[in-house]
Amino acid sequence: MIHLLILTVVAVAGALYFMTPDERTRVRGIALVWLHDARDAVTLQGPQCEEFLNILRERTRRVIIAPGLIVLSTIATLISWNGQATSGDFSHVLATTFAHTRLLDLVINCVCLLQVGLILERLVGRLAFTTVYVASGIVAGVVSFALSPDGMHGGASGSVLGMYGLLLITAAWSAFRHSGVAIPLNVAKRIVPVAAVFVLYHLTTSGLEGAAKVAALVSGLVAGTVVAREISERTPPLRRLATAMTTMVAVVMLYGLVVMHQPTTKHTTDVRPEIDRVIAVEHRTAGIYDQAVGSFRKGRINTLALVTVIHEAIVPELQSVTARLEALRDVPAVDRPLVAAVEEFLKLRDESWQLRAAALLKGDIMALRLADKKEQDSMEAFQRMKIPRTPGGG
């Protein structure tokens, strides 16, 4: 999905290049209006939401935890990008609740968390909000780790999904009881599109990761059921909610231990689907870069945009297939040399793209030649995979 976004940006940049100054001014004005409306929708600004937010402010005046979690997620993500990937260990489950592997994951999760937090942090209180957020993230992480120890997914999507479960139950209960804190239709109209973007994005990029995200959603629904009856009159007390969330986490951890230690029938892994995935990614990313180079040579995009294509559309794809390949277990002995060749190819190919991006930014011809040499090395490893070389590329 990220490469489609990059191609869209490149296409828009090309369209702007061929517009007249007046047309660009009109487009800029329309874009600014759209961004202003989107900001107001996410932050629930405007007279339609003010009365509802004033009622919530009487319970909790300022929203602190949601912005704090956003800052924490951003810092954890930057640290994870500059360090080693999270290893498969229960001690890393909490860390993966905050660290994201993709920029767009971070942006979408943080936008949704901010909007939900503006309501829930005031409605249920800061401690309850934090408890449900962390518990949902841990539950999603434990289930993901138990089912795939070497390929567990990071990010706050499980936590955010848990918050949506909490919001769904509390909103439904408040509406049923005609409570003063029931979410008005005008506010709901702003929440639903943002939630839809969250669901559709994660469905298309990770399929909401099956059981892990279902478990996170159930955590939020359980939390909502615990606090719903008292939500109309006051901020619900923390004790019952904390007990419910602790029980939920304990049950899921017990499930994880059982799944991880249950006897399994020894089987071998068919590596061909992952090899085919690597081949497809090489063809696709090479095509993306060739198209971007064509736009660059025609003057439609600049060097920075070309480098952005490498960093945002190509490198993440390589990192994704590398992680999938590293997660393979019980590889037959006969296939291990092939897997080793693929791993070598991915390592060299990633290095070639990184060198090319740095060389383009610096305008360094010698560095570009070094990138060409690294690409040639990667293509030799590609040949050892016994597949034809893709024309073009980095």
Structure description:
The protein has 15 helices and no strands. By secondary structure, the chain is mostly helical. It has 2 domains: 44-261, Rhomboid-like fold, CATH 1.20.1540; 272-384, Methane Monooxygenase Hydroxylase, Chain G, domain 1. The chain is flat. The two termini are 20 Å apart. The model is unreliable at 84-88 and 387-394 (pLDDT under 50).
Key terms for this structure?
single chain; 394 residues; Rhomboid-like fold; Methane Monooxygenase Hydroxylase, Chain G, domain 1; 15 helices; flat
Dominant shape: flat
Would you state the CATH class of the largest domain?
A: Mainly Alpha
Main pleated sheet = none
Low-confidence stretches: 84-88, 387-394
How large is the radius of gyration? Answer: 24 Å
The CATH topology of the largest domain is what? Rhomboid-like fold
Looking at CATH, the homologous superfamily of the largest domain is: Rhomboid-like
Q: Helix share of residues?
A: over 70%
The succession of helices and strands, N to C, reads HHHHHHHHHHHHHHH
Percentage of β-strand residues: under 5%
> DSSP helix count?
15
> Number of DSSP strands?
0
